[in-house]
Amino acid sequence: MRVVIEGEVRDLRTIWREGQLVKLIDQRKLPHRLEIAVMRDHRETAQAIKDMVLRGAGAIGVAAAYGMAQAALEARHLPLKDFMAYMEEAAQRIRATRPTAVNLFHAVERCLRAAGEGGVEERVRRIVEEADRIAEEDLRASKLIGEYGAQLIPDGARILTHCNAGALAFIDYGTALSPIRYAHRMGKRIFVYVDETRPRCQGARLTAWELEMEGIPYAVIADNAAGYYMRRGEIDLVIVGADRIAANGDVANKIGTYERAVVAKENGIPFYVAAPKMTFDLKCPSGDEIEIEERSPEEVITAWGVDEEGNPTRVYIAKRGTPAKNPAFDVTPAKYITAFITERGILRPPYEESIRRAFG
């Protein structure tokens, strides 16, 4: 992604591997500070996923793959039986970090399958190669999503996004933001309404930061303002990402996505979901079977930011100890989705057929 650091333009990935080290942008510090976190082993990588040092379905899928590669390198001197036991333990640790985004589980399973043949040295090589392959597939998919999706964005479009489905949620380009990036680079005049996306404010903190780096015009709006702008005719289309897509086209994504889809439908506004093959779960019949992560009530009753001196601080916006509920995702039924933007092209209803043809 395009990043400006002290006036210098650089191209930076969200996450990358250097030998046994995994390096990634610490998304908890953005937009106020850009810091690179270094994960020295698979346990640290798993904890980074759990603590949301990085987040986004694609990014945690790549992180899971890199974590499996780290585990293989850590155990390369063990006998075969002990090596496989170590890999199974690492897989379980990584699976336990976040329950909703399916990319993570697909990545772990692919790395385990890669470890199914040969001696230890061969299996280590195959796991590491598979992890790197997953990362490169992620990158290619995000570019193709941008190319296909940009065709759906007319010149002068006003676009609503929700949460962050940009380069920070992938390893580069993103899903929902990739078509916007491509449209902007094609010279199309676009404007992006950025939902703040409470309670972690990934829109205000991360999407806005990415758009600022790209020079794309935008404004952050309160989550509750999206319907206001839709009804006034000031939004032409909505593009969001996804954390898991069921075989029937139901979509699990950041909490609030369902509301955006319903209001868009009511106002005749196209609602697009941008996602790669890794986010589709053909073993999941419908959204009813998707596990929804419930996060800490503290995220709802507090807010994080920096003070006037730039010092990180967390404040209570409700009385300390106030009860709160905090589902991290919701499910949008397929009937509210205009189309899916994928690396295989634009998928339209009936989704059970188009998804099966593309990815079955």
What features would you highlight for this structure?
38% helix; 2 domains; seven-stranded mixed β-sheet; Four Helix Bundle (Hemerythrin (Met), subunit A); alpha/beta; four-stranded mixed β-sheet; Rossmann fold; 360 residues; globular; 11 helices
Task: Detail the topology: elements first, then pairings.
Layout: E1 2-5, E2 8-11, E3 15-18, E4 21-25, E5 36-39, H1 42-50, H2 57-74, H3 80-95, H4 102-114, H5 120-150, E6 158-161, H6 177-185, E7 191-195, H7 202-214, E8 218-221, H8 226-231, E9 237-240, E10 244-246, E11 251-254, H9 257-266, E12 271-274, E13 280-281, H10 298-301, E14 302-306, E15 312-316, E16 329-332, E17 339-342, E18 345-347, H11 351-359
Parallel strand pairs: 6-7, 6-9, 7-8, 9-12, 10-13, 12-17
Antiparallel strand pairs: 1-2, 3-4, 4-5, 10-11, 11-16, 14-15, 17-18
